[in-house]
Design brief:
The chain is an alpha+beta fold. It has 21 helices and ten strands. It has three domains: about 190 residues, no CATH class; about 110 residues, no CATH class; about 70 residues, Orthogonal Bundle (Arc Repressor Mutant, subunit A), CATH 1.10.10.60. About 45% of the residues lie in helices and about 10% in strands. The strands form three sheets. The chain has a five-stranded mixed sheet, covered by helices on one side. Strands 1-6-3 form a three-stranded antiparallel sheet. Strand 4 and strand 5 form a beta hairpin. Helix 8 runs antiparallel to helix 9, helix 14 crosses helix 16 and helix 16 crosses helix 17. The radius of gyration is 32 Å and the shape is extended.
Length: about 475
């Protein structure tokens, strides 16, 4: 075997640590970004948060003719400078960054504002039921059996475990008869909320209907439906249902209305979960007939370099390589966070320019849009646009939307044009909301109506869009 030297030329892309960090920050949501920044703040003493927005001593004053971070949907740069120069005025220099030089909206001078009020914990379903049992005169044995039943209620208030299984479990400790357990179950089912302790949907509805005054129109018919004919009502088989009940159409309509007013999940109010609020990254407003895109200050962190440590390094008192590296790391992070929001703003502006009709007229005016179109406009790669539009949100007069929402596939029209799938969904929803409830539109009929409007959509596609919007088929939308 002979050793030899060979010269080979090749190209490869090397990602610097700064570029890797920039890509990672770009794909994070606002919540994940704040968590990542907290980690950097813990590890790097030269990086810190400003307590308020007006503490940024090196922040440049924003232009007076536009809000910080604001761009116009028309793509025109503000007067007096280029788009790049006007954008950079809203950002701080390399030693810090803040979206605004104004006062913080969270600081009002009130010391109590630093300690937000905590809401009292809501009582659980079991606590609520126990508080009612304590008001009743009952023996210790009955209370123990009630506790056995309450312990087996699911989160919706149903008793999913058969009484026979509970009886076998209880008899391992003491002898209990099935009749005795049934009596205790009726006691539990008499508690508030009505329907708790039911073993099926029909029994849950019947327990609630039984609390209505006896003279209520349709009550007896509704009780019979809940106990024996709930499947016919679910299938909208009204003709057979009337024959089984021996009632007229008015009575059946009243019974159906009573059943619709019942709560199939009686314990739902006790299963409250903590609300998770979405903080939009950009805000869209119409100003002087133009749709203007601005960054949301509440979504942007306030970062700066720790002046004390920076001055020590500048005066040469500390020549350690570690602090110099941490200073460079802090500057990189501030710059990458700045670049992240500049990119989000640029992409959001391009989206608003192309979906202007959506902001004017709603979903029916949504145009087809793909990542490639935005990528070519802003000069970014498709993968970068995909990262920017994932888990980033836009506040508009029509609600809060993820940036991904504005991208949709297209369906051809008979004139050679294209309609977005979002617009077609909106049209389907409009047609169904305006249909005759006695003769609801089938998927085939909706496809024919759209074809008359020049939109070629197959019946299967209509069914797919309808199911995605959680709309029942025509057979289940039919009513008296």
């Amino acid at each position: 075997m002979k050793n030899s030297l060979q010269l080979k030329l090749s190209q490869h892309l090397a990602l610097t640590p700064q570029l890797q960090q920039s890509i990672r920050l770009l794909q994070l949501s606002t919540l994940e970004l704040n968590q990542e920044l907290e980690r950097f703040l813990m590890e790097n003493p030269l990086l810190e948060r400003a307590e308020s927005w007006n503490e940024e001593s090196t922040a440049a004053a924003p232009p007076r003719d536009s809000a910080p971070g604001e761009t116009q949907a028309s793509g025109e740069a503000p007067a007096g400078g280029s788009e790049e120069s006007s954008s950079s005025e809203a950002w701080e220099g390399e030693d810090g960054w803040s979206p605004d030089g104004g006062s913080s909206p969270w600081k009002d001078g009130d010391e109590d504002s630093e300690y937000p009020a905590q809401a009292a914990a809501a009582p659980s379903l079991i606590d609520h039921l126990y508080s009612q049992l304590r008001l009743l005169s009952m023996s210790e044995r009955d209370l123990a059996l009630c506790s056995l039943l309450l312990a087996h209620l699911d989160e919706e208030g149903y008793l999913a475990t058969p009484l026979e299984e509970l009886l076998a479990l209880q008899n391992a400790l003491s002898e209990v008869e099935l009749d005795e357990l049934q009596v205790v179950l009726r006691l539990v089912q008499s508690l508030d909320p009505a329907g708790v302790g039911a073993r099926s949907l029909g029994e849950c509805l019947a327990l609630q209907l039984a609390t209505l005054p006896p003279h209520t129109v349709g009550r007896a018919c509704a009780l019979e439906i809940a106990r024996n004919h709930l499947n016919l009502l679910a299938n909208r088989d009204y003709l057979r249902l009337r024959r089984q009940l021996g009632c007229d159409e008015e009575t059946l309509r009243a019974a159906q209305k009573l059943i619709a007013q019942c709560n199939p999940r009686p314990a739902a109010e006790f299963n409250s979960t903590e609300a998770r609020y979405v903080v939009p990254d950009v805000v869209v407003k119409k100003i002087r007939s133009r749709w203007v895109v601005t960054l949301n200050p509440d979504a942007m962190p306030k970062l700066r370099i720790n002046r004390m440590y920076a001055d020590i390094l500048n005066r040469g008192r500390e020549h350690g390589g570690q602090m110099s590296a941490q200073l460079q790391e802090a500057r990189w992070l501030i710059k990458n966070v700045q670049q992240r929001f500049e990119t989000i703003l640029k992409v959001s502006q391009a989206i608003v320019e192309r979906q202007r009709h959506f902001f004017e007229h709603g979903e029916v005016a949504m145009r087809p849009l793909v990542l490639r179109e935005i990528a070519d406009t802003v000069g970014l790669h498709e993968s970068t646009v995909s990262r920017v539009t994932t888990q980033k949100f836009m506040l508009t007069p029509r609600g809060i939307f993820e940036l991904k929402y504005f991208f949709s596939s297209h369906v051809g029209t008979d004139t050679g044009g294209a309609a977005s799938s979002t617009a077609i969904r909106a049209l389907i929803k409009q047609l169904i909301s305006a249909e005759d409830c006695r003769k609801p539109l089938s998927d085939s009929r909706i496809s024919d109506i759209l074809a008359q409007q020049g939109i070629v959509v197959a019946r299967r596609t209509v069914a797919k869009y309808r199911e995605a919007m959680q709309i029942h088929p025509a057979s289940q939308r039919k009513s008296l």
